[in-house]
Every structure is written in structure tokens, then in C-alpha cells.
Amino acid sequence: MPEKAKQKETKVLAPRRPFMDLTRWDSEMDRMMEDFFGRSMRPWWPAQWLRGDGEITAPVVDVYEEKDEVVVKAELPGLDKKDIEVNISDSELTLKGQKKKEEEIEKENYYRRERSYGAFLRSVELPTDVQADKVKASFKNGVLEVRVPKTEEAKTKTTKVQID
């Protein structure tokens, strides 16, 4: 038997990262599709919403209509209401904010200091005409809720559709 075959094989243990290959594959597929079609195939997932570590920096937003109002809810965990700005112009609602977090722990033979910063800007097109001067917003448990009253015209606007 050859000398090499008799030697014991040494294996190196490495941490298993099952999603690293998927991320690389996903990026490569996006690049190939963009090269082929000449444009991004995922306009619903803007690249500027992602940080290098894959964390989404734009808030998750729900927009829905109730009888007299348009309601916008945004998830903003870890923020205070003083860190959030809400603006409305014409038929667009804009949420803007910045997260600043610093944490420091110092004990005997132990020291940890972490900082995280990040800004976001998210604009949402409102589905109907609204009364911008009567907007109300509340912030509770990391969820921002903005209620915008509809105009009287928008409340009664119903179009009957003929079915063929």
C-alpha cells in the first residue's frame, strides 16, 4: 500500500454557515439576470434597503383604508418617538428617522461596548385624497400608526363597474 494512503486524514472543523452559499447564489443570479435583461429583475426589493449584513433598514409598512381614514402602520423597533419624523405632501406620506444606540458594560475582567446607527427614509403613496391638515400619529411598542382622514369627496366616491 502506498505510504500516503496509510497516513491518517486530518479534517479541519469549520463553522457551518448554511445560508452563505444561498446569498452568494442569489447575488450571482441577480447579476446574470441584470446582464441578460439589462435591468434588475427585483424592483420590489430595492438594494438601498439592505445593509451589508442583510438587515433591512427601511421600515415594514402596512397601508389600508377604513371607512373615513387611510391608516399607515410602520414597525420601528428600538426607536423613540423623538427619533421619528412624519411628513405628508399631496398624496405621499414620508417616514424618516435615525436609530442611535450605544451600550456599554464594564465588569471585572469583562468589557463590552456596542454601537448601532442607521437612518431610514420611506415614502408611501396614499391610495385616495386625504385631509393632510388633520393627520394624527401615535407611537406605541415600536409601532407607528398614522391616521389620515379622507376628503368628503373621497368618502363618497364609488364607481359602479358594468360586468360583461
Query: H/E series, N to C?
Result: HHEEEEEEEH
First-to-last CA distance: 84 Å
Report low-confidence residues grouped into runs of 5 or more: 44-56
Classification by helices and strands: alpha+beta
CATH architecture type of the largest domain: Sandwich
Radius of gyration: 25 Å
Helix fraction?
10-25%
CATH topology of the largest domain: Immunoglobulin-like
Integer average pLDDT: 77
Describe, in short, the structure shown.
The strands form two sheets. The protein has a four-stranded antiparallel sheet, with no helix packed on it. It has a three-stranded antiparallel sheet with strand order 3-4-5, with no helix packed on it.
List keywords for this structure.
three-stranded antiparallel sheet, 16% helix, 2 domains, alpha+beta, Immunoglobulin-like, 7 strands, 164 residues, four-stranded antiparallel sheet, flat
Q: How would you describe this protein?
A:
- The chain has 164 residues and is α+β, with helices and mostly antiparallel strands.
- It has two domains: 17-52, no CATH class; 57-157, Immunoglobulin-like (Sandwich), CATH 2.60.40.
- 16% of the residues lie in helices and 38% in strands.
- It is built from three helices and seven strands.
- The strands form two sheets. It has a four-stranded antiparallel β-sheet with strand order 1-2-7-6, with no helix packed on it. Strands 3-4-5 form a three-stranded antiparallel β-sheet, with no helix packed on it.
- A hairpin with a 2-residue loop joins strand 3 (84-89) and strand 4 (92-107).
- The radius of gyration is 25 Å and the shape is flat.
- The model is unreliable at 44-56 (pLDDT under 50).
